[in-house]
């Protein structure tokens, strides 16, 4: 008797969905997609359809609730609303690393911490050495950021022969870099604070703590406190995406269920399913199994896993599409200020990042405060530094905050794209040399 085709189809579907899920959580893929989306944005912005590109992002979108009406451009909804979820993931990554990761031990975190600070200070100084007017100086922080997805994606292209400690070092450095970027946005790119907005933000934070005290475990329950926090920061004059970082740092890092509780719950559920023929009993037991599967992971991990594909393959590519489209014909470099901004950002990313990371790391080791992780030498630190020069997402985000002048903003974005592209090319070139030398020495 032939076996029914449906179970086989289910098996194929399950394997396909599993492969897709694995694909969606590969960091390198996210970097490659960002690269292609940036190219599409540039081609679109410089095609005969350039007017449609710019018109799309300026299209107003509003929300009406009774007499309340709030309208902003599509660009605002992407940069100030959707990017809050990107910063939420960043905040949860920082929270997790501080709890039990690369930042949990100060002595372990000291070397990537010093390297990250070097990677912020050196680019800022190089940029400021080339830009002196008040309008130009505002962009000092643009070349200080590192795009984690792009950097990790470029490193993955080099293959598994690159020591795993280099990847860990790069991730730790990029996470610290994100912390610095968040602090820079909070202190240097937020307007004068409105006390009413700050009070509303505090109410949002208190509501989050109250919900946690009550034991609310569903992420959806925190949408209202999160919206209140976002609104408070927006009214206060701070950048509202910081709400994502705050919520991420407040996300619990421990499981609600102990190991013993999980084992007992699973055993009871399986025993009930095996011993009962009643549909309701089996359904309840299956629901309990699903509940244990959900609660066995700490919220900071579970929510991160859920949001990761949406942020990596939805929000970040959309941000790139909306912000990377520089119309070359509109790029006015005849002004010395615009030329200096573009050149300053490009050189600061391409040269300042690796220089600062390398010098600060070497100084910490030379002073005996730190030592290089196993399998990493100065050549490996240089590789991390070169890939750290890939600014892209965060650099463009800061550029949008730094410049209100469209000419200078366009120049800054051009500098980010050129600096990031050159960092990728030089970083991959050095990476292949590093791989070859490592293979010979081994």
Binned, the helix content reads over 70%
Q: Counting H and I runs of at least 4 residues, what is the number of helices?
A: 18
Q: Which second-level CATH architecture of the domain at 56-189 and 307-335 and 374-406 applies?
A: Up-down Bundle
Q: What's the total count of β strands?
A: 2
Tell me what you see in this structure:
- The model is unreliable at 1-6 and 9-25 (pLDDT under 50).
- Helix 4 runs parallel beside helix 11, helix 7 (148-157) runs parallel beside helix 18 and helix 14 (299-323) packs across helix 17.
- The chain is 74% helix and 3% strand.
- The N and C termini lie far apart (59 Å).
- The protein has helices at residues 5-24, 27-45, 50-57, 74-100, 106-130, 134-137, 148-157, 164-188, 195-214, 223-236, 242-250, 259-275, 279-295, 299-323, 336-366, 378-388, 392-402, 406-441, and strands spanning 60-65, 68-73.
- Among the domains are: 56-189 and 307-335 and 374-406, Na+/H+ antiporter like domain (Na+/H+ antiporter like fold); 256-296.
- It is globular and about 80 Å long.
- It is built from 18 helices and 2 strands.
- The chain has 442 residues and is mainly α.
- A two-stranded antiparallel ribbon has the order 1-2.
- Strand 1 and strand 2 form a beta hairpin.
- The chain crosses the membrane at residues 23-45, 76-94, 106-128, 140-158, 170-190, 196-216, 228-250, 341-364, 376-403, 415-433.
- InterPro entries: Na/H_antiporter_dom_sf, NhaA.
- Its main location: membrane.
- This is Na(+)/H(+) antiporter NhaA.
- Belongs to the NhaA Na(+)/H(+) (TC 2.A.33) antiporter family.
């Amino acid at each position: 008797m032939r076996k029914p085709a449906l179970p086989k189809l289910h098996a194929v579907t399950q394997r396909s969905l599993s492969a897709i899920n694995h694909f969606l959580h590969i960091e390198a893929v996210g970097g490659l997609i960002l690269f292609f989306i940036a190219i599409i944005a540039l081609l679109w912005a410089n095609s005969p359809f350039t007017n449609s590109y710019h018109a799309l992002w300026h299209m107003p979108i509003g929300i009406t609730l009774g007499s309340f009406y709030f309208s902003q451009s599509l660009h605002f909804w992407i940069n100030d609303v959707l990017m809050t979820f990107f910063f939420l993931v960043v905040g949860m990554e920082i929270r997790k690393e501080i709890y039990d990761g690369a930042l949990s031990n100060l002595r372990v975190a000291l070397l990537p911490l010093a390297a990250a600070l070097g990677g912020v200070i050196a680019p800022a100084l190089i940029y400021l050495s080339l830009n002196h007017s008040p309008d130009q100086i505002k962009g000092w922080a643009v070349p200080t950021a590192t795009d984690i997805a792009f950097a990790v994606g470029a490193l993955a292209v080099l293959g598994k022969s690159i020591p795993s400690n280099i990847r860990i070092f790069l991730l730790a450095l990029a996470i610290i870099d994100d912390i610095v970027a968040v602090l820079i946005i909070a202190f240097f790119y937020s307007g004068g604070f409105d006390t009413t907005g700050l009070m509303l933000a505090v109410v949002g934070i208190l509501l989050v703590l109250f919900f946690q005290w009550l034991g609310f475990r569903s992420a959806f329950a925190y949408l209202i406190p999160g919206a209140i926090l976002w609104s408070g920061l927006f009214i206060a004059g701070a950048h509202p995406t910081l709400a994502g970082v705050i919520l991420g740092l407040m996300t619990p890092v421990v499981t609600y269920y102990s190991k013993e509780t999980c084992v007992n719950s699973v055993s009871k559920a399986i025993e009930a399913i095996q011993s009962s023929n009643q549909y309701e009993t089996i359904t309840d037991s299956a629901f309990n199994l699903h509940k244990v599967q959900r609660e066995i992971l700490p919220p900071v991990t579970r929510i991160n896993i859920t949001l990761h594909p949406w942020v990596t393959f939805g929000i970040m590519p959309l941000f790139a599409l909306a912000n990377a489209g520089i119309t070359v014909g509109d790029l006015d470099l005849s002004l010395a200020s615009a030329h200096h901004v573009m050149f300053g950002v490009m050189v600061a990313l391409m040269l300042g990042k690796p220089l600062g990371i390398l010098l600060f790391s070497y100084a910490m080791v030379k002073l005996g405060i730190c030592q290089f992780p196993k399998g990493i030498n100065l050549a490996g630190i240089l590789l991390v530094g070169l890939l750290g020069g890939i600014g892209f997402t965060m650099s463009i985000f800061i550029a949008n905050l730094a410049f209100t002048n469209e000419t200078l903003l366009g120049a800054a974005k051009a500098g980010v794209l050129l600096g990031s592209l050159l960092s990728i090319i030089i970083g991959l070139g050095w990476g292949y040399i590093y791989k070859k030398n490592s293979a010979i020495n081994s």
